[in-house]
Amino acid sequence: MKQSFTKGIFAAAILSLTITSCTSENRDEIVSPEEVAVQANAENLNSDLLDCSYVDVNWASTAVLKTGLPLATDSNFMTGQMTKIAAYWKRTKPALSFVSDAANQNSTYNAISYSTGKIYYGYAIFADAKAKGGNIVNAMILAHEYGHQLQYAYSLPSVKENTARPNELEADGFAGYYLRRPTGYNQDTFAKIAAAYEFAQSIGDYQTTSAGHHGTPPQRRSAVRLGFLLAQYDLTAADFDYNFFYYYTGVLNETYRTAKNTRFPELDAYMSNYTEELKQIQTNEISAEEFKSLK
User: Fold this and answer.
1) Which residues are within 8 A (CB) of 190 and not within 5 positions of it... i.e. 6 or more apart?
2) Residue 87 falls inside a structural domain
3) Edge-to-edge strand ranges of the sheet holding 118-122
4) What's the pTM?
5) The domain containing residue 18 runs over which residues?
6) Quick check: helix, strand or coil at residue 100?
7) Which PROSITE patterns match (predicted)?
8) Inside any domain, residue 153
9) Sign for the pseudo-dihedral over CA of 207, 208, 212, 218
10) Of 146, 173, 192, which residue constitutes the final position of a domain?
11) 138 plus 20 within the same structural domain
12) Which pLDDT tens digits describe the chain residue by residue (295 residues)?
């Protein structure tokens, strides 16, 4: 049986699972292949979609695993981003699949990263993210999920708590980092990233004692802002982890003042300009609207 590591939006999961593989034998052929191809060409539908009869225990029993999204352009964007994110970190690309549920589409409002090298992305969260902010929001979510793949690979995060918060906030940071990097999503102004992350912070939670706690909305905002700032420098995943928690924790308890970041002095000099701002984001002194205007 597969065990869920965290619950809720943007989740990570560990241990193994068994699923039915996606093959042409599982495909739901309502019309002939020729008719599907004609319709797909006319409406930009994905004529190569395959589906399976079972996903896993993290999804509704009526959910179906898909090889793509209804629109071919959406599928191409997501698979292209998956390739680009993995290439940026110089690692193997995870298997990206999508989850649909005709009986209850809201059940697919999630994305989960598995320790077995898979990412499952729900139809509902993709559609809502695209409607609210366009492609960059789904690029952000995918980069967040890939952040969990980095955590699996390098035994991160280095900070542990009784909830999923450090895992999820660091994944937010990894996403902010990737969105800014020139060879990543290459967004050079924070306003573009902040608009995408309004989607993420909107599903932050205040269940601070729950095992599945992902961080409050202000904490999620500060995590992506920190990731964006760290993207001024080219860092390995391990170095990112070190700096992320050095500043994320340090700006609240001010330990960064008493234990200087001697490992990264140039980065520390740069970050010293932003520590007070990060604290104000974390404590909600900088509102969501002000957050969007940060440079």
Assistant:
1) 180, 225, 228, 294, 295
2) yes
3) 3-4, 11-14, 111-114, 118-122, 95-100, 64-66
4) 0.85
5) 3-146
6) strand
7) PROKAR_LIPOPROTEIN
8) no
9) positive
10) 146
11) yes
12) 222 333 345 666 654 333 344 543 333 333 333 333 444 454 566 656 666 667 899 999 999 999 999 999 999 999 999 999 999 999 999 999 999 999 999 999 999 999 999 999 999 999 999 998 899 999 999 999 999 999 999 999 999 988 999 999 999 999 999 999 999 999 999 988 887 777 767 767 768 677 777 878 888 889 999 999 999 999 999 999 999 999 999 887 888 888 889 999 999 999 999 999 999 998 889 887 888 888 8
Amino acid occupying residue 110: N
Cα(213)–Cα(226) distance, rounded to whole angstroms?
20
Two tokens, residue 51: 């589906």
Q: How far is CA 150 from CA 28, 57, 117, 159, 251, in A?
A: 35, 23, 10, 15, 24
SS3 (DSSP) at 103: coil
